[in-house]
Write a structure and sequence with these properties.
Largest sheet: 7 strands, parallel
Helix content: 40-55%
Shape: globular
Radius of gyration: 22 Å
Strand content: 5-15%
Distance between the termini: 47 Å
Number of helices: 13
Strand order of the largest sheet: 1-10-9-5-2-3-4
Order of helices and strands: HHHHEHEHEHEHHEEHEEHEHEH
Structural class: alpha/beta
Oligomer: single chain
Number of strands: 10
């Protein structure tokens, strides 16, 4: 009973401070406790995820840089943040918080969100996200399971958490994301109606949150363990791949690489991605420079959250080849 009372007091203090805007000294007087205890309870509320804090960085502090990248690649929006560190983990946190702020202010109707749950930055974004003002109907995973069980569990938890923050239903793709052969892929899908249903929902996506990666083994994954092998990566690089979007490999100009790996992926297709009404990506850092340029040049994304150094890289060298704009899918209406 004492634990329940302590939790109720913690919640009350958090609501008075964050919702009602009361000062800590006033809360202490009102509840007849010390100010130091108020401070401790606020810290405990944050540790328990009862309170989530997001640093609201003013948008467009790099307005000129953003405009230049948008114009060069035909992107709808580019949001550039200053990196506080060159460390990739620290950069991912900064980009994740920026993406969380952008999603919180979502202004258009969203019924179906395609969510790349294996992306570390997108998982960090979910951890930083507040409940969205715009409600959706479903959150569908873009890829099947990748890597070891721990990563699979983290991905599923993130999908569940993200769906809760959007008010939508989580739709999991509980099948291997990379299979050994096309025949095994066909067999798995023929026996799994839930996986087939999830993949069909990706035909009508209002917002796709996608991952961008270089053409190399992800640090969280191991060769051949529910994923591609080092040898497969080597072959696709020999074909000109510089990066991938949702495990679809691209050359330097953003053209898809025709390889046998396409038939081994269980997840969103390039056609489904192209037909999504909005395609948002959050990525940055030197290791991903060429991959991000390929995704932007090929028209596979229309909104990008990145760091200033990456944005400046995107403006270097000759402009990307002109490509026809993706065909707009039929408009969706609320029944």
């Amino acid at each position: 009973m004492a634990d329940v009372d302590a939790q109720r007091l913690m919640i009350k203090v958090a609501r008075l401070y964050h919702t009602h805007g009361m000062r800590q000294t006033d809360i202490a007087k009102r509840l007849q406790i010390s100010q130091s205890r108020v401070s401790r309870l606020l810290a405990q509320a944050e540790e328990a995820s009862i309170v989530r804090t997001v640093v609201a960085v003013p948008q467009h502090i790099h307005a000129e840089l953003e405009d230049q990248v948008e114009a060069r690649y035909g992107l709808s929006e580019v949001h550039v943040v200053d990196a506080v560190s060159h460390d990739e983990t620290e950069l991912s946190k900064d980009l994740a918080h920026a993406m969380a702020s952008l999603l919180y202010d979502l202004a258009f109707e969203v019924r179906t969100v395609a969510f790349t749950s294996w992306s570390k930055t997108l998982r960090l974004m979910v951890d930083a996200l507040l409940p969205l003002r715009t409600r959706c109907e479903r959150v569908v995973e873009t890829l099947g399971d990748l890597g070891p069980p721990r990563l699979q569990h983290d991905a599923a938890r993130s999908t569940q958490q993200f769906a809760g923050l959007t008010g939508g239903e989580p739709v999991f793709l509980r099948t291997p994301g990379v299979v050994p052969s096309p025949e095994i892929k066909e067999l798995l899908l023929s026996r799994d109606p839930y996986a087939r249903g999830a993949l069909e929902l990706l035909d009508s996506v209002d917002l796709a949150l996608v991952g961008i990666a270089p053409s190399e083994m992800d640090p969280e994954l191991r060769s051949g363990e529910n994923f591609f092998t080092d040898e497969q990566y080597e072959r696709v690089r020999e074909q000109g791949a510089v990066g991938e979007v949702c495990l679809h490999f691209l050359d330097a100009d953003g053209n898809p690489i025709a390889s046998e790996l396409e038939d081994l992926v269980v997840g969103i297709t390039l056609e489904q991605l192209r037909n999504a009404r909005h395609r948002w990506a959050v990525a940055g850092g030197e290791r991903k420079h060429r991959a991000i340029r390929a995704a932007a040049a090929g028209g596979w994304i229309d909104t990008l959250v990145t760091d200033a150094a990456t944005a400046r890289f995107l403006l270097e060298g000759p402009p990307p080849p002109t490509k026809p704009a993706p065909a707009a899918p039929a408009a969706t209406t609320t029944p």
